[in-house]
Design goal:
single chain, 233 residues, alpha+beta, Immunoglobulin-like, eight-stranded antiparallel β-sheet, 6 helices, binds heme C
Length: 233
């Protein structure tokens, strides 16, 4: 650059600032919140599930996608994916606005709450236990796709605490119970969008407090690992 003649530099700078123009202007505008972006644009398809678009507030449809992580999901929305046009056909949306919109569509209520109390922004937050060298992450999702009252999808992700490696070869049994009744089921290996977990459906009708007791058997381990969670819903 040092020996570039001055007369060449000037037009280059002009061209550079022209290229930066629209973004520079846009960056100064305040970011719209998730709800505003969704109402204005994303709802066109995501309100009714046009072309298989996951619907706003349908956590069962969003949860497996959210498991891929916000960055991956936002990238997919930014680039476009299947029937999903790049940036939802709104090239002027910033990455931050796209993420806010996704958070809002995943859980309109908690996105609103997160705005009121940013410290508690809990989208995707999972209960966690460390037992017998195994990190256990619990996910509990309402399952409106299942007929019958009060169905929830219970899923867990297991990691070896020492190596951080995901454990995919365990036998996992879950018992969901109140002091009065209970149901024991195997949690089946599931792979959704490349994310591995163990899961099954359980019925949790009424308002009773339920606990989930897990028995996790790893091949070669002398004894099963047992963990208990209170199911908050
Ligand atoms: C023209 C219709 C349309 C509009 C507008 C639209 N979407 Fe979508 N979107 C879809 C469809 C269809 C899918 C399902 C694509 C699939 O999974 O094959 C989808 C899927 C997605 C996904 C999941 C992608 C994945 O990899 O699983 C995200 C995230 C998303 N949309 C975000 C948005 C956001 C944010 C907006 C608003 C800025 C928006 N969409 C606007 C049609 C739309």
């Amino acid at each position: 650059m040092t020996d570039t003649p001055r007369w060449l530099l000037a037009p280059m700078l002009v061209a550079g600032s022209l290229l930066l123009g629209p973004q520079a202007v846009r960056a100064q505008a305040p970011e719209r919140n998730g709800k505003a972006v969704v109402d204005e644009q994303c709802a066109k398809c995501h309100a009714k599930g046009e072309g298989g678009a996951p619907k706003i507030g349908d956590r069962a449809a969003w949860a497996p996608r959210m498991k891929r992580g916000m960055d991956a999901l936002a990238l997919s929305a930014i680039r476009g994916h299947g029937g999903m046009p790049a940036r939802g056909s709104r090239a002027d949306l910033t990455d931050g606005e796209i993420k806010a919109a996704i958070n809002y569509m995943f859980n309109p209520a908690s996105a609103a709450a997160a705005k009121a109390a940013p410290a508690k922004s809990a989208a995707g937050e999972r209960a966690h236990r460390l037992v017998g060298g195994v990190d256990i992450y619990l996910g509990l999702m309402r399952a409106p796709e299942r007929k019958g009252k009060g169905y929830y999808h219970v899923s867990i992700v297991l990691r070896d605490h020492a190596s951080k490696a995901e454990i995919k070869d365990a036998q996992v049994e879950g018992r969901v119970a109140t002091p009065m009744t209970g149901e024991t089921k195997k949690l089946e290996p599931e792979t959704v969008n490349n994310a591995f977990s163990y899961g099954n459906y359980f019925q949790l009708p009424g308002k009773d407090p339920y606990t989930l007791t897990l028995q996790i058997r790893r091949p070669g381990a002398p004894a099963p690992v047992e963990a208990k969670f209170d199911l908050k819903r």
